[in-house]
């Protein structure tokens, strides 16, 4: 891997934000990390790339290491063996103006770096073993209802019903883009894909006859997810009537752009209006516009479709391990969070397990319900088949 920016030259951009004024000398902004620290950091980042880590992970780890090594250099500490007090001082400076999640991410980058450096014999040990990771707040993922998901799909296909005003000269292009957007939403929801996985799909990764999609996820690990009948129909219609029109637009414009765009878009499934690959930013922009058209609440993102996919599967009775496989989670614990946002699954488990939820009500029309002790209850709150939310 040839890094876009070396650790050293970029350090000065982060020093002022991570070094407290009281702890750093006046010339701290000009301090650069030890050359050995820069070399170790670059070797570590190259190892991440060789291991198949995502570009976002590498970029995040680079940012964290730049700031950490700059702070050590500015305060005169050796990066190979920082003391516990030094690390605590850095974490205190890092916590100023940053959330616990950001601090945890920076700390994870430092831990991984020192594990690598220890294995390579660059440091005598991992100085972060005695430093605790800040406890992260547990937040349940937001999900869409089935009706909200359908409204998002309807917003993408607005040209069919005439709800989207389009000049006649651009009607064909608008139709192609609408077919593409419907296929994007249907595929994301049917297969539970991450936005990066969705953008990297190729024409060859879709098997419409079998209803399968081959996905390359985190760590370049491949898995097979499934497409339901509506998603297969949407992708087939896009491939037949939408993608050819978009691909043909790659021939418009300058000759240089024509060659590069056509080359990039040969196998990419989803194309932009110029015939080039539709990237992650373009997909986020399109889905945000569809959210506004559909009248969905703020905070709905492409990842919300993935959350909805998992939750709706569990609501329908799918096994948790099947959902784990479809999502591509390494640990079942990661998938288990969706059991907390699946009301139907929780209600079914409650009804099947709680003794007061399994009682049969004899007289719904004013009668009484038998209790386990042989008595009866006719109070409004004592209905034997009342659910947890009643």
Structural class: mainly alpha
What CATH architecture label of the largest domain applies?
Orthogonal Bundle
Q: Per CATH, what is the topology of the largest domain?
A: hpI Integrase, Chain A
Kindly provide the name of the CATH class of the largest domain.
Mainly Alpha
Strand content: under 5%
Anisotropy-based shape: globular
What do the pLDDT scores average to? Answer: 79
CA gyration radius, whole angstroms: 27 Å
Number of helices: 17
Fold topology:
Blueprint: H1 7-10, H2 12-18, H3 35-51, H4 55-74, H5 84-95, H6 100-119, H7 146-156, H8 158-161, H9 171-191, H10 195-199, E1 206-207, E2 212-216, E3 222-226, H11 229-248, H12 255-264, H13 280-294, H14 302-315, H15 320-327, H16 332-335, H17 343-353, E4 369-370, E5 376-377
Summarize the structure.
The protein has 390 residues and is mainly alpha-helical.
Kindly describe this structure.
The protein has 390 residues and is mainly alpha-helical. The protein folds into two domains: 7-119, DNA polymerase, domain 1 (Orthogonal Bundle); 146-344, hpI Integrase, Chain A. It contains 17 helices and five strands. The chain has helices at residues 7-10, 12-18, 35-51, 55-74, 84-95, 100-119, 146-156, 158-161, 171-191, 195-199, 229-248, 255-264, 280-294, 302-315, 320-327, 332-335, 343-353, and strands at 206-207, 212-216, 222-226, 369-370, 376-377. The strands form two sheets. A three-stranded antiparallel sheet has the order 1-2-3. The chain has a two-stranded antiparallel sheet with strand order 4-5. Helix 3 packs antiparallel against helix 4 (55-74) and helix 7 runs antiparallel to helix 9. The longest helix is centred in the middle third of the chain and has 21 residues, at 171-191. The protein is globular and about 65 Å long. It starts with 6 loop residues before the first helix and ends in a 13-residue tail after the last strand. Residues 1-30, 254-263 and 361-390 have low confidence and may be disordered.
């Amino acid at each position: 891997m040839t890094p876009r920016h070396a650790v050293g030259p970029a350090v000065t951009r982060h020093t002022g934000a991570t070094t407290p004024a009281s702890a750093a000398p006046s010339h701290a902004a000009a301090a650069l990390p030890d050359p050995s620290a820069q070399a170790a950091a670059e070797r570590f980042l190259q190892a991440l790339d060789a291991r198949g880590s995502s570009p976002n992970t590498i970029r995040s780890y680079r940012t964290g290491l730049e700031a950490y090594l700059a702070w050590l250099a500015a305060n005169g500490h050796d990066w190979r063996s920082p003391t516990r007090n030094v690390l605590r001082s850095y974490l205190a400076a890092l916590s100023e103006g940053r959330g616990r999640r950001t601090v945890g991410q920076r700390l994870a980058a430092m831990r991984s770096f020192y594990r690598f450096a220890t294995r390579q014999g660059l440091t005598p040990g991992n100085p972060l073993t005695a430093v605790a990771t800040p406890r992260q707040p547990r937040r349940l993922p937001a999900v869409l209802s089935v009706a909200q998901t359908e409204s998002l799909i309807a917003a993408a296909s607005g040209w069919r019903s005439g709800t989207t005003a389009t000049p006649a000269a651009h009607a064909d292009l608008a139709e192609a883009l609408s077919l593409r957007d419907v296929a994007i939403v249907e595929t994301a929801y049917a297969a539970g894909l991450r936005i990066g996985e969705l953008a990297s799909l190729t024409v060859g990764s879709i098997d419409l006859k079998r209803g399968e999609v081959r996905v390359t996820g985190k760590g370049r690990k491949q898995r097979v997810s499934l497409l339901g009948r509506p998603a297969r129909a949407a992708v087939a219609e896009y491939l037949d009537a939408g993608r050819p029109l978009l691909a043909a637009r790659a021939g418009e414009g300058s000759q240089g752009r024509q060659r590069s765009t056509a080359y990039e878009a040969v196998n990419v499934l989803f194309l932009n209006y110029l015939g080039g690959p539709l990237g992650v930013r373009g997909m986020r922009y399109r889905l945000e516009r569809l959210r506004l058209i559909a009248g969905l609440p703020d905070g709905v993102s492409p990842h919300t479709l993935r959350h909805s996919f998992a939750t709706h599967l569990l609501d329908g009775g799918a096994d948790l391990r099947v959902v784990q496989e479809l999502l591509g989670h390494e640990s079942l614990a990661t998938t288990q969070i969706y059991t907390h946002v699946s009301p139907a699954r929780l209600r079914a488990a409650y009804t099947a397990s709680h003794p007061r939820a399994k009682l049969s009500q004899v007289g719904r029309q004013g009668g009484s319900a038998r209790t386990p002790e042989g008595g009866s209850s006719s109070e409004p709150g004592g209905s034997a088949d009342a659910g947890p939310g009643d």
